[in-house]
Amino acid sequence: MNKAVFKRVVLKISGEALQGRLGYGIDYDACASIARQIKEIRGLGVEVAVVIGAGNIFRGLSGSARGIDRVNADYMGMLATVINGLALQDALEKVGVFTRVQTAIELQELAEPYIRRRAIRHLEKGRVVIFVGGTGNPYFTTDTAAALRAIEIGADVILKATKVDGVYSDDPFKNKRAKRYDSLKYIDVLKKDLKVMDASATSLCMDNNLPIIVFDLLKVGNIKKVITGEKIGTIVKR
């Protein structure tokens, strides 16, 4: 099956996805692999926006736990997402995919400011839009940014690319008996605190009936499988 079942998607990528085998920072091979997969789904006519985290460089909450002022730590994390976004943009353009980076915090020499109508127009023209800087506000994660941007641009679904093949009842790396769910309701995610996305992001998706599909990014080709409707990972919906 090679026909896309979604027209417009937001792909949420963790910063850790860019570190590849390095364990920190940015592994260009990992960036290039993600770029090739995004190019593949663009070839199916899918409009793609990306929201990227910064856990490979700096995580605001972790910085706060080490004594940095929480607001300062969160802004440091937002800046780190810009670095990741520029790295992914470079990888995408090297494989012939036109991109725009839009930031929620003003950095005019590096990226466009986030403007909803401009972002939609870029998508309509076939460009991949990379959203960085989170929501532009401290205390909100990039998960919440992904939910917010997806709703604003009228995306059909959030594709949350992770290092596991779906949502489990417990950490599958620590508990071999953890159960993987094929589907979940938003309210069950919140009640069971399943860490699909943070509570704010999940609640936003629930209020706006925006599905979330959680799947394994480490297996090359999975993005296309999700886009073409193969039943992999876990879907969260009503």
Can you characterise this structure?
This protein has 238 residues and is α/β, with parallel strands linked by helices. The chain has a single domain, classed as 3-Layer(aba) Sandwich (Carbamate kinase), CATH 3.40.1160. It is 37% helix and 19% strand. The longest helix has 25 residues, at 70-94. The chain starts with 7 loop residues before the first strand and ends with a strand. The mean pLDDT is 94.
Compact description:
With 238 residues, this protein is an alpha/beta fold.
Secondary structure topology:
Blueprint lengths: L7 E6 L14 H15 L4 E6 L7 H6 L4 H25 L4 E5 L8 E2 L2 H9 L3 E5 L9 H12 L3 E6 L4 E2 L11 E2 L1 E3 H7 L6 H9 L4 E5 L5 H6 L6 E4 L1
Helix pairs in contact: 1-3, 5-7, 6-7
